[in-house]
UniProtKB/TrEMBL annotation:
This is P-loop containing nucleoside triphosphate hydrolase protein. One of its GO terms (cellular component) is vacuolar membrane. Belongs to the ABC transporter superfamily. ABCB family. Heavy Metal importer (TC 3.A.1.210) subfamily. Residues 4-229 form the ABC transporter domain. It comes from Gigaspora rosea. It is found in: Membrane. GO terms for molecular function: ABC-type transporter activity; ATP binding; ATP hydrolysis activity. The keyword Disulfide bond does not apply.
Length: 229
């Protein structure tokens, strides 16, 4: 599960200036794919269309061979997990924040997800207010740590596809790399992972799509793209 195909997809926020121009590409299931390229190229728009935040203007998007417009919204949302650029957390424990939205998950599963996202040491603390349930003083979570909480929540949900939008992320490169590594390791060949990134510094993507001016300018593995330049 989790194969994604864009077939001649067009989309415009403004009809005079289409954001995606008949774009076509395939993402094999279970692979890690990086969308890179200049700001405004269309990376975030691709993620928004995949999640059906907007519907395509023309063409179609297939997941496992099925047009996503014909899939029930709740089934699509169950199959796709989104790790946003800026994670807003509840003013409650990290445990609560990970468990939220996955109420059937056991306490043990929450701990495992937290461990996988490397945020388990903060599980009893609150994100922002220096407080914990037991009254200890904790440290305020950094942007990268908040994103780890979002990753843990997504891991717990266990969707077939995970979208990670770092297109305009303010995280430092080291933190970004750690987060990408963590996610890629967890998802292995089981989950399709699509990462939108402003730089081409993605290291362990199986496929890199360079999105420029609403089209695929180049695609290939990291080594193939380096040989072409
Ligand atoms: P990237 O993620 O590669 O930076 P985007 O998908 O955000 O690119 O943007 C593609 C194009 O669509 C750009 O020209 C951008 O200005 C425009 N755009 C993106 N979001 C919106 C929006 N909500 N309303 C209008 N135009 C938008
Ligand atoms: P992102 O990578 O999240 O798309 P952007 O900088 O492209 O970041 O856009 C941030 C927000 O600003 C978008 O969610 C969109 O709503 C809005 N936006 C971006 N470009 C335009 C645009 N050309 N016209 C109107 N709104 C825009």
């Amino acid at each position: 599960e989790g194969a994604v195909v864009f077939e001649n997809v067009g989309f415009a926020y403004d009809p005079r200036n289409p954001a995606l121009k008949n774009i076509s590409f395939s993402i094999p299931k279970g692979k890690t794919v990086a969308l890179v390229g200049p700001s405004g190229g269309g990376k975030s728009t691709i993620l928004r269309l995949l999640f059906r935040f907007y519907d395509v203007g023309s063409g179609r998007i297939l997941i496992d061979g099925q047009d996503i417009r014909l899939v029930k919204q709740e089934s699509l949302r169950r199959n796709i997990g989104v790790v946003p650029q800026d994670t807003v957390l509840f003013n409650d424990t990290i445990f609560y924040n990970i468990h939220y939205g996955n109420i059937k998950a056991s306490e043990d599963d929450v701990y495992k997800a937290a461990k996988a996202a490397q945020i388990h040491d903060r599980i009893k603390t609150f994100p922002d207010d220096y407080q914990t349930r037991v009254g200890e003083r904790g440290l305020r979570l950094s942007g990268g740590e908040k994103q780890r909480v979002a990753i843990a929540r997504t891991i717990l949900k266990d969707p077939a596809i995970i979208l990670l939008d770092e297109a305009t992320s303010a995280l430092d490169t080291t933190t970004e790399r750690q987060i990408q590594h963590a996610l890629a390791n967890i998802t292995k060949d089981r989950t399709t992972l699509v990462i939108a990134h402003r730089l081409s510094t993605i290291i362990n993507a199986d496929l890199i799509l360079c999105i420029k001016d609403g089209q695929v300018a180049e695609q290939g593995t990291h080594d193939e793209l380096i040989q072409n330049t």
